[in-house]
Amino acid sequence: MRERVISAIKEVVSQEIEIDVSVPEQETFGHYSTNVAFKLAKTQKTSPLSVAETLLKSLSQNPLFSRVEVKTPGFINFWIQEGEYYKELKTIIDKKNEYGKKVVAGPKKKMQVEYISANPTGPLTLANGRGGFLGDALSNVLESQGFEVEREYYVNDTGNQVLTLGKSLLANCGLIPFEDTFYKGEYVAEWAEANKEFITKNAEKPEDIGRKAADYFLSLIQDALEKKSNIHFDRYTSEQKDIHDKKYVEKVLNLFKGRGVVYENEGATWFKTTEFGDDKDRVLITSKGTPTYLLADAGHYLETKDRGFYGKILILGPDHYGYVSRIQAAAKIVGLDDSRVIITQAVRLLKSGEEMKMSKRKGAFVTFGELVDEVGVDVARFFFLMISPDSHMDFDIDLARERSNKNPVFYFQYAFVRASSILEKVKNSGSGDYSILSTREDMNLLRKLCEFPDVLEDASRTFAIHQLTQYAGELSRAFHNFYEHEHIEGEEENTKNARRDLVVATQIVLGNLLDVLGVTRVSSM
Questions:
Q1: Which pLDDT belongs to residue 205?
Q2: How many Å apart are CA 508 and CA 265, to the nearest integer?
Q3: How many CA atoms lie within 13 A of 295 on its CB side?
Q4: 36-48, pLDDT tens digit by residue?
Q5: Which residues contact 204 (CB under 8 A, 6 or more apart)?
Q6: Between 183 and 231, whose confidence is greater?
Q7: What are the structural domains of the chain?
Q8: Confidence class of residue 362 from pLDDT cuts 50, 70 and 90?
Q9: What is 288-342 written as a DSSP string?
Q10: Which terminus of the chain, N or C, has fewer Cβ atoms within 10 Å?
Q11: Do the Cβ atoms of 481 and 444 come closer than 8 Å?
């Protein structure tokens, strides 16, 4: 519907400009609103109000609108003909699970989404989980809008962290002294105890020990994600096998040299990241001849490009802001047309208003797996997705456990269950005359249903998945209000059939929204 409003505005605007159309918070400002007059006023050197009033004359003639008005200082507000919403209701019912999805002509653009990619040296943190749910849901959204998506977990299975893990295990077996940099925790001690013979036998090969342990920890991570948390991946990329063994470190270094963006200084090889907005140049190869993480990651980006990807979205945890400009520099040089980096902020657990810090088993932090066990995967997922990733998050354990309408996940899933229950009771006896749907609750629900394609498209463009959870609350509220105020059974046949179709459409959109967010379609509550 919004695209139709934008098209109507384009018909009367002579300039090539980006046209923004939004849904006002209050219906008194229309079903849709635009600030296009403010943009045009800058080039026409007149007031936005004057531009808006000129546009009003033509826009008012468009049959899409029942009313168009100008509001000071120059906003244009639109009311859509009710008949257009009735047509869209039929479209929802006809398209079913495809409603909201975008059909793309020709080959789909390949987009890689990398998320979590935690070192396989221990259990996942809450920050890992936040990025995991975000990456999984964002991948669903992009697929719905016509992208070919690869969900990637990049496994850092070589280098210093694997060596440190091996040394940590040796220390746990009493074979070398403990150091402050070693990995600590019950999970390390448990693996060391179970594999003491192997560790002792390979005491001179700490990296081999670390790699074997890392493989085991990765299997635990995979189980925690795929089986317990419904966070899925298409590819686990091995830094060692897919990047180093395939010579992508050397390939990307040669590419950088060919582009003249590296230089030698004090025995090290440097990357001119200051030319791409970084605050200082970065080392690619140390004076000891060791490749840095940045060089290996640049090789990873080149490998992604070589496999035919148009773009890449990298989701990182807190404290990675300084990494953005340098990896974006690498992405530009290797030729990824669209490279984005999303930084998620920290998560704080609250119980009875107090911060939770201690883990039940690990004695250091609450793991992601423990949180999922505590509140359930649907609640954990929805709560993490409710907050914009660039905002710090307080996860309220008490609210997460709540089995009432106070819990936004319960409220959302209950709307789907309620719609399904109505349809089981009220059997289909044909379509009614949709013009009968004229009450405030009828139309509020119908208009909210018709926003779904626009909300999905926005999320694919801005990556603002929290807008989908916000929409889930708004749609659920509109449906619960409809249920409380309007009747289906006992009404005359036309009204009953029209309202039943409205509930069918609600069940379809709620179900599609549950699917794209990755939340379960429950059958009862």
A1: 95
A2: 62
A3: 28
A4: 999 999 988 999 9
A5: none
A6: 231
A7: 2-80 (3.30.1360.70), 160-220 (no CATH), 405-517 (1.10.730.10)
A8: very low
A9: TSPBPHHHHHHHHHHHHHHTT-SEEEEEE-TT-HHHHHHHHHHHHHHT-SEEEEE
A10: C
A11: yes
* φ and ψ at residue 172, rounded to 5 degrees: -65, -25
Phi, psi of 153 (to 5 degrees): -115, 115
SS3 content of the chain, % helix, strand, coil (to 5): 55, 15, 35
Residue with tokens 């405030």: 440
Integer Cα distance of 159 and 450 in angstroms: 51
- Upper half-sphere CA count for residue 253 (Cβ side, 13 Å): 20
Report which DSSP code applies to 64. T
Tell me how far CA of residue 112 lies from CA of 247, 309, 336, 458, in angstroms: 21, 7, 11, 19
Ramachandran quadrant class, 319 (left: phi over 0; alpha: psi -120 to 50; beta: rest)? left
Distance of CA 182 to the CA centre of its chain: 33
**What is the distance between the alpha carbons of residues 149 and 438, in angstroms, rounded to a whole number?**
41
Q: Which residues contact 510 (CB under 8 A, 6 or more apart)?
A: 412, 415, 416, 419, 475, 476, 479
What value, to the nearest 5°, has the Cα angle with vertex 154 and ends 279 and 462? 65
Phi, psi angles (nearest 5°) of residue 76: -115, 125
Residue 164 tokens read as 């440190």
Which of 20-29, 426-435, 484-493, 508-517 is least confident? 426-435
Measure the CA–CA gap between 69 and 30, rounded to whole angstroms.
Answer: 9
Residue 286 CA to residue 298 CA, distance in Å, equals 16
Specify the amino acid at residue 30: G
Question: What spatial distance separates the first Cα and last Cα of the chain, rounded to whole Å?
Answer: 34
Separation of alpha carbons 396 and 80, rounded Å: 40
Name which of 47, 30, 27 is nearest 38 in CA terms.
47
Tokens of 109: 């653009």
